[in-house]
Amino acid sequence: MRSRGDMITGYLFVMPVVVSLAVFLIGPIFYAFYISFHEFSFLAPDQAKWIGLDNYVKLFQDPRFLKALKNTSFYSLGVVPVQICIALMLALIVDSKIKGKTFFRVVYFLPTVTSTVAVSVMFMYLFKSDGIVNLFLSHLGLPTHDWFGSIKFALPATMMMAIWTTVGQFMVIYLAGLQDIPTDLYEAAEVDGASPWQKFRFVTWPMLRPTTFFVLIMSIIGTFQVFDQVYVISKGEGGPQDATLTVVFYLYRTAFKDFDMGYASAMAFVLFLIILVLTFIQKKFFKEETA
């Protein structure tokens, strides 16, 4: 049996982590949930007023929040499927027997480890009125746009940037999934005369379902939490005319510019519930697919 001294030693080793989680994660979560039922500002915390569910009711009557939720949903619907398709395609390429595949792996992954601010500034130069993108379009005889200054094109241009910066991360995850597939399955498929497409359809894709589920959930969470790219591109305004306003960006403005922490906390928990529901829906869908 373990001695009391061993148990105390174990608890002492675990205690710093438990205390850190309690102070910096669990405690703030419960406190944020508490103040979401209050009219609360850190400028005057002693004047906090209990208002019940008013903050939550107000959210769905707030046109700016509804606009932010619409923008975020559109952003997610546009980015997630494209991210997954390109990441899988790149993973298949760098997992094949091509020369210099290590080089291509590094090149594809490089945008992921590049500063988001630096990438945002780079794309602002690429997509400005006299930038490379418009120069290329004009040479093709296609119409040019003021991409980030346009209500219609600001969000799609941001989506293109997000895909470019994050697809390498999911490529690496898919690559790990591909390398975990037993080679015996491919050998058996070749014996049966399967074509490359049939091997992908009946071997690769079914074996990648757990990986795809993980990538999908991570991608959805990432797109619903988008903030830094939008902040840099819109110069902290979410414009033009709220065209790039997202839920997290609106939450930030509400909390740290309007100092309405109660309303911002309610917004955070609504976003959490949306992501949680989407995760459970995807989990149920993938379970039915594999059943």
From TrEMBL:
It holds the Pfam family BPD_transp_1. Keywords: Cell membrane, Membrane, Sugar transport, Transmembrane, Transmembrane helix, Transport. It is found in: Cell membrane. Residues 69-282 form the ABC transmembrane type-1 domain. SUPFAM superfamilies: MetI-like (SSF161098). One of its GO terms (biological process) is transmembrane transport. It comes from the Bacteria. GO terms for cellular component: plasma membrane. It is a multi-pass membrane protein. The chain crosses the membrane at residues 12-34, 74-94, 106-127, 147-176, 207-227, 261-281. Belongs to the binding-protein-dependent transport system permease family. This is Multiple sugar transport system permease protein.
